[in-house]
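Q: I'm writing up a methods section and want to include an example of the input and output format. Could you take the sequence below and give the corresponding predicted structure tokens, formatted cleanly so I can copy it straight into the document?
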Amino acid sequence: MFLSNRKHSKVKVDGKGIAKRWAVLTLAGVLWVGPVAGTGVLIPLNNWISAPIASAASGSTVKLGEEIITSGATLLKYRFKGSKGTALADIIRVDLQNPYVKLDVMTGKNGQFTTRQSTGGMAKETGAVAGVNGDYFNTSSEGAPIGGQVSKGVLMSTPSDLTGMYAFAVTKDGSPMVEQFTFEGTVKAGDGSSFSLAGMNKASYSPETSGSSYSHSNAMYIYTSAWKAIERPKNSSTTPTEILVQNGVVTQVSENATLNMTVPQDGYILRTHGKAAEYAKAHLTVGQTVETNYHLRVKSTGSEVDPSNLQMMIGGHTILVNDGQKTSFSRSTTSIGGTRARTALGYSRDKRYAYVIAVEKNGNSVGVSLSELQTLMKDIGVWKGMNLDGGGSTTMVTRDLGDTTAGLTFNTEYGTEQRSIVNGVGVYTTAPKGTLKGFTIKGNKTLLIGQTGSYSFKGYDNYYNPFDTSKVQVTWKSSNPAVVSVSGGVVKGAQPGTATLTASSGSASATTKVTVLGADEISSLTAGSGTGSLTAGAKIAVPITAKTKDGQSVSITSDALKWEFIGFKGSVKDNQLTVNTVDAGLKTGYAIGRYDGFSAVVFLSAGGASTNNWENFENVSYPVDFTSNAEGVTGTAAVVQGDGDHANSKVLELSYDMTNGSGKMYAYAQLNGTSGKTLEQAATSISIDVKGDKSLNWLRAELEDAQGKTAYIDLAKVIDWNGWKTINADMSGLNISYPAKLKRLYVVNVAEGQDERAKTGKVAFDNISFNTPGTVGTEGLKKGTAQMTIGQKSMTVNGTPTTIDAAPMTRNGSTYVPIKYVLDAFGGQAKWNAGDQRITIMRGGVLIDLTVGKKELILNGKRKSSEVAPIVLGGRTLVPLRLVSEQLGMTVKWEQETKTITLQS
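A: Here is the clean output for your methods example:
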């Protein structure tokens, strides 16, 4: 959890004085599913969620598959049905009896506290084959765990004096335990006197059982070289006397002041205050010998534990499972409630297996409550287990077979960005170099037509660790060259379907299935910015981005599309559209690129792309105000001189302080009072320069359209950057009536996981532009009124009757009109493709692909659903009347008595 600008005596984590961190995670969209290494395949997420694999005993937890990470460690995948929907869990099961695998604690950078590093960074630095985030910590302090820690058999941090805090440990003989531990230690001077040690390498906090308000008051702490910071610790509310001990002898004393140094490798620093400082002054003088003794004690049994007999130990929070059953929480969980991403540790009844658990929260997983986490742990076989830091911190990394480093098992709440934390649990292989056991193929599991895939052939040994295959000659083969072709080692998607790709070397081989996506799997197809200049010689960048129905975003070369040009002659090559000649008298052009029938469109106008610098804040004449929804939230909104990349520009600056607010809190920069600033033309996207504050808050814009409807634009779900950057946000699906008004730019701190985000900060805005392709072709559009009557082959346009050869009709409760005559009356054009039974309608900045008999349509490159499908009668295409009103910018009136349709534009 993130806490800022708070003294340690004020810090609260769960109502009892503990700081925490949380993480929300997202899955990458595919997952290994297979019983053993080498036989698994990557399956799209929507497939493996429903895979028919045996469920656990309770029925709410379903195992989806597993994959070996290394000898003794296996990644298990589960689906859990909770109160708010489906959650996905990733569990590393470690065989504590396997001599070739071990668990240990990863710490910051170079194994030191106060240095913080991501889970992936610590795993890479230490050579872990897998890992998760670890203990809670106070983010306003230097960065040391709340609980105790033993790494490589060395005590690095002692448990804090807090109620109900559990720790997970493994002894050197491989026996796990989940217990509450206390610390006992003494310092003995050469004169025989002694004083109690309060702890080791601790940040300041508020004790809960000793009665003291300050952890370091009247106390002696020992700081080792594992503590990197010079201050020991900050915000302690006490002035220390520090004693440096090297090789068992006092070498320096700093009375009522900190020693201005880091702790040397050959010694430690005793940090004293009050009564402890008085003892030090009397007994710990330079040259005096010093001896320290300390141990841990199990609270439940009173048994003493020598830290040197532990392989590892990491602190956590409440106990969750005991004797294989859900158990009552050992401390308050109020502030870590809700449905969240979660991290936990536990072990099996026979103590053979340790379970390293991460539950995701993302578009595919809703997360779990603590109670649901208990159920999940019980279902998978945890006999005793505890909670670790979660929410925004939840991060798991695992190494795929054949790979040399561990990567994200699924995306975090912030995509691929991982939070910096104080420690984590790492899984390590100790196996010797083995013999070649098998191969895997790594690479694209899905391709688009014309897309080239990147594939590698990797080996693993009999301990499931990487085996060097750099000198191995590999032959590639496709089971269906019509779908996936292979030529000279280049694998390319040819047509929709599935093929098996085989890599062979001698008698060894590996296979993987590759699916080439057809139009039915695509939700949108975008060509560059979607606009350009209709001028001979103009060159427009048109990189193609396809988004699949399961959420994947795939880049594809524009050469893979079949292009048609309307209003001009041109060409497309290497992601660039070139306008060669423009048809005489035309001011509007359309470049349509088709992928398996699905279309992307570029609108061209003689005046260039309709993108304008709508507001740069250089000459603002309207008022800008700060407002909020919540009492206690304060701040300012003003146009000021910019900095950094915008030092020569004026910007809109929004500062906020939500410290005294509660619930879902907003900080608004409100434009022009309650009126807002008017946007006259229809816009498909907004571009805005934003100076972020890395607060992890939500950034939005609010518009009000011509009908008084409010529309919200998500500029950034998470402000996870510092400094200036340009943000582009889609507006095409907002269904805004223009002219509209931009009323507010604002920051949101939502209630759930609020303690992870900063409550104070400052953002700034500059150079707001709107992409308004809706103005393309308006000079060819007509205003007026037209009337048609059901069953009659006549039409009145602006009072003038005309004959039509297809009458409007009703079928199954829906009204259909002949689109040709609608376009003749109001402007626009249509093209018919008899082979695909497709009609393409172009009017202004709208291009619609309709297919006879299909209820889906493609609108400006995006798949949309419709309640009814177009039909063909007597050689004319009739389209649903609702389509005309909703997509072509016309209003429709229906007269029931006369069966008359009135269209206006």
